[in-house]
Design a protein that fits this description.
Elements (H helix, E strand, L loop, with lengths): L3 H20 L13 H8 L8 H22 L19 H14 L8 H12 L13
């Protein structure tokens, strides 16, 4: 469904965006093998009594924005890939998207262990589907 190069680029962007904030927070421990969808969900929805909640949310927002921007880069231009998701206009707030992502991961535990970038793309595809492409005009 997703090309390997896009998935690899998105995973790299997510890891780079989130690494500094997660190095300072005990709420989201490093997971052997990578930063997962469940890790990102914990960052996006920290508990109310979590002293690191502001840092976790900042890492969440940075990750979501980074994945969205990389998606936009790969889906625009002459040799663009088909978009995985299409945000509505106006776009939802980061608070809305992050809360919806947390709920999606909770409801879709089969994806909790995938890379965070893949989890975000699966969530976004389910939450913000693109309109079906128009059928090509028939030549007569």
């Amino acid at each position: 469904m997703f090309s390997r190069s896009i998935t690899a680029a998105l995973a790299l962007a997510a890891a780079l965006a989130a690494a500094p904030a997660f190095a300072q927070t005990a709420t989201v421990p490093a997971v052997p093998g990578g930063f997962t969808a469940a890790d990102l969900a914990r960052a996006c929805g920290p508990s109310a009594n979590d002293a690191n909640a502001p840092a976790s949310r900042a890492a969440c927002y940075a990750t979501l924005v980074s994945i969205g921007q990389v998606h936009a880069i790969y889906t625009s231009g002459r040799q663009a890939a088909r978009p995985v998701f299409c945000l509505p206009d106006p776009s939802p707030s980061l608070e809305t998207v992050s809360a919806a992502y947390v709920a999606w991961v909770a409801a879709n535990q089969q994806y909790a262990g995938v890379r965070a970038a893949e989890g975000v793309l699966r969530f976004a595809a389910a939450s913000y589907p693109c309109a079906a492409p128009a059928a090509p005009a028939r030549r007569r």
